[in-house]
């Protein structure tokens, strides 16, 4: 077997499940992370992130001795780099984590090893990673200079799993394999075939990089179309949810759903990697980002109008006496992930401008994040429905689905829950 030991660098939302799934196939897996706390938690058989069923798989992998975490890379036969690629300044991709991860594994590389970049990356990042590795290890040969005879094989194989369904999608999804040479791709396929049941489709590294960015940009543009429609329909006094339902009866139309904006760690970031490389050409992709990023502010204007409507109907009250309840804080339905959530941004803005009490309802969490917990209280659906004067519906969690039956209050419905 070519892979006795597999190292996964970056034990976050992608790296940890990937490490755990390799370990569940009885491979020796060394997980590497700069965060000592995360390393300690994993070595206790626990997890520091939220993903359904991941705790059980990690616990089994650690207790059976297949998965071990460390802060310092150790020799392995394959290295998968799954570190964050955020953007900096004017939406320029920040490759610092890939740079430090590649420099940290370089000293332990040996002839025959495979290095895979899994992090979502701008086009050219895999070649850049190969250059960093070659610079650190002049004694080894790399595909960019030695082609098929290189000592080290390198590929880009982007992850494409949906948060909340990671363990299922890791195994079932097709995988795009972008080797720097055909032999690099072939070795990467033999690695992924350890657990991937979907098809492994070969291309080159640049196309694989662009493919991942294209997938998320395609979704961002589609959501922007739905969000733009919602703002147009609001002006024209048309129910956008009904409109989309009707338009989608056309056999070749499939419009997505408007919302309060686009959250998560990927769709609101990845399109910028295309825009920053080709600003002149990527006009639609940039505009989609701007439309989606502007949606929370549009929602805030609607909340101000809703408060004004309530005050008009209740002239004995002042704004200080108006209670607003925000329903949902997560970045999408039925998960507890609050990071990069437009619902959080909107709730924070409401707290900043509204002089009266603000309540938050989020059935998927037990306590509020630090950014909110001193300013508002976490409340049950029922008490928020009773106490609030204005309801702001931000996430279509399943728990909110039958609110419409009892709702006779002023509200802003950003997800069409009450349609
Ligand atoms: N959203 C809408 N309307 C919709 C669909 C989504 O407003 O009709 C919003 C959601 O509420 C959320 C945001 O978009 O705020 C993103 O949610 P999502 O479910 O579209 O995507 P993510 O961020 O959870 O995961 C995406 C996935 N990419 C695609 O579907 C193309 C996933 O497969 C990727 O692996 C992941 O990004 C990633 O890691 O890149």
Summarize the structure.
By secondary structure, the chain is of the alpha/beta class. It has helices spanning 15-24, 36-43, 54-63, 96-105, 125-136, 143-146, 166-172, 182-192, 205-236, 240-247, 270-277, 283-313, 342-353, 370-373, 381-387; strands at 5-9, 28-32, 67-70, 78-81, 87-88, 92-93, 114-117, 153-156, 175-179, 200-204, 324-327, 358-361, 377-378, 390-393, 410-413.
What attributes characterize this protein structure?
about 425 residues; alpha/beta; Rossmann fold; five-stranded parallel sheet; 15 helices; binds ligand SAJ
What this model shows, in words?
The longest helix is centred in the middle third of the chain and has 32 residues. Helix 11 packs across helix 12. This protein has 2 domains: 194 residues, NAD(P)-binding Rossmann-like Domain (Rossmann fold, 3-Layer(aba) Sandwich); 180 residues, NAD(P)-binding Rossmann-like Domain (Rossmann fold, 3-Layer(aba) Sandwich), CATH 3.40.50.720. It is built from 15 helices and 15 strands. With 419 residues, it is α/β, with parallel strands linked by helices. An 8-stranded mixed sheet has the order 3-2-1-4-7-8-9-10, with helices on both faces. A 5-stranded parallel sheet has the order 13-12-11-14-15, with helices on both faces. A two-stranded antiparallel ribbon has the order 5-6. Ligand SAJ binds next to helix 9.
The CATH class name of the largest domain reads Alpha Beta
CATH superfamily of the largest domain: NAD(P)-binding Rossmann-like Domain
Q: Write down the overall mean pLDDT.
A: 95
Strand order of the largest sheet: 3-2-1-4-7-8-9-10
Instruction: List low-pLDDT spans.
Output: none
Radius of gyration over alpha carbons?
24 Å
Classification by helices and strands: alpha/beta
User: Under CATH, the topology of the largest domain is which?
Assistant: Rossmann fold
C-alpha geometry:
elongated
Strand-residue proportion: 5-15%
Distance between the termini: 56 Å
**How much helix, percentage-wise, in residues?**
40-55%
Continuous helix count: 15
**Distinct bound molecules:** ligand SAJ
Kindly state the number of beta strands.
Answer: 15
The biggest beta sheet reads: 8 strands, mixed
SSE topology string: EHEHHEEEEHEHHEHEHEHHHHEHEHEHEE
């Amino acid at each position: 077997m070519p892979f006795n030991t597999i190292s996964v660098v970056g034990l976050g939302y992608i790296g940890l499940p990937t490490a755990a799934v390799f370990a569940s196939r009885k491979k020796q897996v060394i997980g590497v992370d700069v965060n000592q706390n995360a390393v300690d938690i994993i070595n206790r058989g626990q997890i520091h992130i939220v993903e359904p069923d991941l705790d059980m798989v990690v616990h089994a992998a650690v207790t059976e001795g297949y998965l071990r975490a460390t802060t310092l890379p150790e020799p392995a036969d394959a290295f998968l780099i799954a570190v964050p690629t955020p953007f900096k300044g004017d939406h320029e991709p920040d490759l610092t984590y890939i740079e430090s991860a590649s420099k940290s594994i370089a000293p332990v590389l040996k002839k025959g090893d495979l290095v895979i970049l899994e992090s979502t990356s701008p086009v050219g990042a895999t070649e850049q990673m190969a250059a960093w590795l070659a610079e650190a290890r002049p004694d080894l040969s790399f595909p960019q200079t030695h082609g098929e005879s290189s000592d080290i094989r390198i590929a880009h194989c982007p992850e494409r799993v949906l948060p909340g369904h990671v363990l299922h999608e890791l195994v079932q999804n097709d995988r795009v394999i972008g080797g720097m040479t055909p032999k690099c791709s072939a070795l990467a396929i033999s690695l992924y075939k350890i657990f991937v049941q979907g098809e492994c489709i070969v291309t080159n590294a640049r196309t694989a990089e662009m493919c991942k960015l294209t997938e998320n940009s395609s979704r961002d543009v589609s959501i922007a179309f739905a969000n733009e429609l919602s703002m147009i329909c609001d002006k024209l006094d048309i129910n956008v949810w009904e409109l989309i339902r009707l338009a989608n009866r056309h056999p070749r139309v499939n419009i997505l759903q408007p919302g309060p904006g686009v959250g998560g760690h990927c769709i609101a970031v990845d399109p910028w990697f295309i825009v920053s490389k080709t600003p002149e050409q990527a006009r639609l992709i940039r505009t989609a980002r701007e439309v989606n990023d502007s949606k929370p502010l549009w929602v805030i204007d609607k909340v101000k109008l809703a408060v004004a409507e309530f005050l008009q109907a209740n002239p004995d009250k002042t704004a200080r006496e108006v209670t607003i309840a925000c329903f949902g804080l997560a970045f999408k339905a039925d998960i507890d992930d609050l990071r990069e959530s437009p619902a959080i941004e909107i709730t924070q803005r409401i707290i900043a401008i509204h002089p009266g009490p603000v309540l938050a309802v989020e059935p998927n969490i037990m306590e509020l994040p630090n950014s909110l917990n001193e300013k508002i209280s976490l409340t049950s659906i029922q008490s928020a429905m009773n106490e609030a004067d204005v309801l702001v519906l931000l996430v279509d969690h399943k728990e909110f689905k039958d609110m419409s039956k009892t709702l006779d209050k002023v509200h802003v419905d950003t997800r069409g829950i009450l349609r």
